[in-house]
Write a structure and sequence with these properties.
The protein is an alpha/beta fold. The protein has helices at about 15-30, 65-85, 95-105, 130-140, 150-155, 200-210, 230-240, 255-260, 275-280, 295-300, 315-325, 330-340, 345-369; strands spanning about 1-5, 30-35, 50-55, 90-95, 115, 145, 165, 185-190, 220-225, 245-250, 260-265, 285-290, 305-310. It is globular, with a radius of gyration of 21 Å.
C-alpha cells in the first residue's frame, strides 16, 4: 500500500511521535510510505524512520494579517496538492486540526481517501474562529475521522457521519532499559510536558508547596520546555521552593526520570491522550492525574490504576499526593496496577486498529470509483 502521512513538523510532541511510529511500522512491513511536513525539516526532534520518504515543504511561516494568512493558506494548499500528486498515495493520513483542514483542501478532487486525526480534545483547544469554521466545512469530506477517546467521539459524531468515526488510542512506545524497583525509587514527584497553561503545572507547584514542610525529603521535578517557563519559575521563587522544585528543561531520556521517580503527576486542565501518563504507568509509577474530560480516566480506568482528582483543585491534588508520598505500599500497589493497565496500549494492538481504518476507507474508495 502507498501511504502518505501529513503533519506540521517532527518537533517534540505526542502527535509527532505517533506519526513517526506509525510510518516506521508501515515502512518496516513493506508499505511505500511518504511523510510530508509543513515545516522546513531543520528542527526535527524525532528522526525520520528508515525507509520513509520525507518531504519538508517549508510552508510554516507566520502571517501578520488576515489577508496574508489567506494567501499563505492558498499557497500551502497548492504546494501540498502537488506533493500529494507526486506521492500517488492509496490513502492519506493527516494529524492535527489545522493541518487536517489544509490536507482536505489540498486533496479535494484527487480521488484519494483522506483519514484525519484529532490529537487533543477540540472541545477545549481553541484554534480560532476561522479555523474552527473551516474544520466544520472540510471534515465531512474526510473518509474517516480518528479520535483518541470515547469522550471526543461524541464531539466528532456531530461533525461527520458516526460510521466514519474511529477511536484509536496512542501506542505505548518501547521503554529503554529496566525500571527501578518500587521500594528503591527516589522521593521525587515527576511531571512531564510542555510548559503551557493547558498542562496545569502552576496547580502542581502550589499543591507541592502545601506539602513541602511535611515531606522534607521529597522534590518536584518538571521536565519540559515552553512559554510558561518564566511564570512558573517566578511562582517557584515566590513560594520559596527554589531548592525543592526543579525544571531542567526538555529531556531526550524521559525513561530514566520516570523509571526512578516514586510518583508521577499530570495536573492538566485538558488533554487528548496523555503519552507521558501512559509512559509513567508502564514504568510502574504511582500516578495522580486530573479527571479532565478526555484522557486520564481512559488510562487509569477510573481510579483502578492510579488516582484521579478534579481539574484545578490544588487542595485535592495536595491531599492525594500526600497520601501517595507517605504510603510506600500504596505506591507499589498502584504502580503494579498501572503497569498491567498500560499493556492494553501495546503498539501491535494500536497498529491493527489503524490498519482496519485504512483498509475500510481504501475499500470504500474503490467501490465509489
Amino acid at each position: 500500500m502507498r501511504i502518505c502521512g501529513v503533519i506540521a513538523s517532527l518537533g517534540a510532541g505526542g502527535a509527532e511521535r505517533v506519526m513517526t511510529e506509525l510510518c516506521a511500522a508501515w515502512a518496516t512491513r513493506g508499505d511505500d510510505v511518504t511523510l510530508l511536513t509543513l515545516d522546513d525539516g531543520r528542527h526535527d526532534f524525532y528522526a525520520v524512520p528508515t525507509g520513509v520518504h520525507r518531504r519538508a515543504l517549508d510552508l510554516a511561516s507566520r502571517s501578520r494579517t488576515a489577508n496574508d494568512a489567506l494567501r499563505a493558506n492558498v499557497l500551502r494548499a497548492r504546494v501540498m496538492r502537488a506533493a500529494l500528486r507526486a506521492a500517488r498515495p492509496d490513502v492519506v493520513v493527516s494529524f492535527t486540526d489545522r493541518t487536517n483542514v489544509l490536507t482536505l483542501l489540498a486533496a479535494r478532487g484527487l480521488s484519494v481517501p483522506v483519514v484525519v486525526s484529532e490529537r487533543i480534545d477540540p472541545r477545549h483547544h481553541d484554534i480560532g474562529r476561522a479555523w474552527s469554521l473551516l474544520r466544520r466545512l472540510t471534515y465531512p469530506s474526510a473518509s474517516a475521522l480518528v479520535v483518541q477517546t470515547e469522550a471526543v467521539r461524541r464531539w466528532a459524531d456531530d461533525i461527520v457521519s458516526p460510521a466514519r468515526v474511529a477511536v484509536i488510542p496512542n501506542p505505548l512506545r518501547p521503554i529503554a532499559g529496566p525500571t527501578t524497583a518500587a521500594g528503591a525509587r527516589d522521593h521525587i514527584v515527576v511531571a512531564l510536558g510542555r510548559l503551557v497553561p493547558q498542562k496545569g503545572f502552576d496547580v502542581l507547584i502550589r499543591a507541592f508547596a502545601m506539602l513541602a514542610s511535611e515531606f522534607p525529603s521529597w522534590q518536584l521535578r518538571i521536565l519540559g520546555e515552553g512559554p510558561e517557563r518564566s511564570a512558573l519559575q517566578s511562582l517557584v521563587d515566590t513560594l520559596g521552593l527554589v531548592e525543592r522544585v526543579t525544571m531542567p528543561g526538555r529531556t531526550a531520556d524521559p525513561d530514566r526520570a520516570l523509571g526512578a521517580a516514586a510518583v508521577f503527576a499530570l495536573p492538566s486542565r485538558y488533554e487528548g491522550f496523555p503519552n507521558a501518563l501512559l509512559e509513567a504507568m508502564s514504568q510502574g509509577c504511582a500516578c495522580v492525574a486530573t479527571r479532565c474530560d478526555s484522557g486520564p480516566s481512559d488510562l487509569l480506568a477510573d481510579d483502578a490504576a492510579g488516582c484521579l482528582v478534579p481539574v484545578g483543585d490544588v487542595l485535592h491534588l495536595a491531599e492525594t499526593m500526600a497520601m501517595l508520598m507517605e504510603d510506600g505500599a500504596l505506591r507499589t500497589r498502584l504502580g503494579g496496577e498501572a503497569q498491567r493497565a498500560a499493556t492494553r496500549f501495546a503498539p501491535a494492538v494500536v497498529l491493527s486498529a489503524w490498519d482496519a481504518v485504512l483498509s475500510t476507507v481504501r475499500t470504500s474508495s474503490r467501490m465509489a470509483a
